[in-house]
Amino acid sequence: MAEDRDPMIDPMRASFARAALSRRTALTGLAAVGAAGFLAACGSPGKAPTSSAGASKTPLSAPDLSDTEKVVNWSNWQAYMDVAGGKHPTLDAFAKATGIKVKYNEDYNDNDEFFAKVRPLLESGKDTGRDVWCSTDWMVARLIRLGYVQPLDKANIPNATNLADSLTNVEFDPGRSFSLPWQSGFAGIGFNPKSTGGKTVTTMDQLLHDPALKGKVTLLTEMRDSVGLVLIEQGVSLATVTADQFAAAIQVIADAKNAGQIKGFTGNDYTKPLASGDTAACVAWTGDVVQLRLDNPSLGFTLPDKGFTLWSDNFVIPAMAQHKKNAEKLINYYYDPAVMAQVEAYVNYVAPVKGTKEALTKSDPTMANNDLIFPSDATLARAQVFRGLTAEEETSFTRQFQALVTG
Fold this sequence. Notes:
The structure is a single chain. By secondary structure, the chain is an alpha/beta fold. The protein has two domains: 13-184 and 312-373, D-Maltodextrin-Binding Protein, domain 2, CATH 3.40.190.10; 186-309 and 400-406, 3-Layer(aba) Sandwich (D-Maltodextrin-Binding Protein, domain 2), CATH 3.40.190. The chain has helices at 13-19, 26-33, 35-41, 89-98, 111-123, 137-146, 193-196, 204-209, 223-233, 243-258, 271-276, 286-295, 324-334, 337-347, 356-361, 365-368, 377-381, 391-406, and strands spanning 71-75, 101-105, 132-136, 180-191, 217-220, 262-266, 281-285, 300-302, 308-316, 383-384. Strands 1, 2, 3, 4, 5, 6, 7, 8, 9 and 10 form a ten-stranded mixed β-sheet that branches. It is globular. Mean pLDDT is 85; it is low at 1-56.
């Protein structure tokens, strides 16, 4: 948990405190539930439903108590909210403006770990005790596929029109019927010129094959980012990637590993070795690099010309939520650019809400001009979102990548 601080005094350091929690690392979930449990959670033919229609026996909605109970229960990742004086200013402002109390819980530590907690309740058609939470793209795809999340009533979220154009029609949720992004980020290539001999690392081919980097390269344990960057460099669209294309990218990484080019796979713990120079170059996330550059401006970060991965953590409302309308009012509140600007001043990821940059410019023009936090249209045009996978594909792809990481 990040220590409390005035978000306008030291805004960028929050991302590092949060990064240390290995927020998006799927294999952290493997450690928590075991490999067998992880693969089972991905769904298996004949057991877990593979579409919303297949999950039709599970009721989606419960009587909405929003009009009589002025409360909303929100589960989110740790250190993913503005903090000042031990409080969350935007949450307090929402409660004051609407009369709705937010029971805010930072109990979302890992996608699969969280899914393992709520799945038994969702399967049996019971309330999870949560009205809204924030899941990463691929987990949202799974939740939609299983029929575990409710469609959003956009009449209660008029500010949804502020959603960034590049995030509107993602493959796993066209038109954003079930989800709206909370925060986004990119995966690219981080490098330390001290250890690359002054070289700038600009491509995955260079990362995986340049002899000058041999034994000093790490990739992320997040499958969709590490394999995704290789696929993009091979000219494959992540929106249409096939099993054969995925296997070919896995082989490229395996060859580099067998050749001694890759020293390991990491979660967010790549940050210290990159900063020290023990790691010359690696697949890295934008939020981490923003922080590391505060202490070491010489560190480099490249978003490859051929493209890079874009991920989001997204608001979803689970089946049987007791306060759906209140949750939608909460989402609407954070889609106000002025409110999202307050959050961005603390968390430093990519704002999914149009107008946030202009709002933040008034208080922190330096941050507002950071292309890793407020990317240009040209930058966003090169970003790709990994498509949603079927249950069978998710199991197969995860097994292949897990074998590579742990083998």
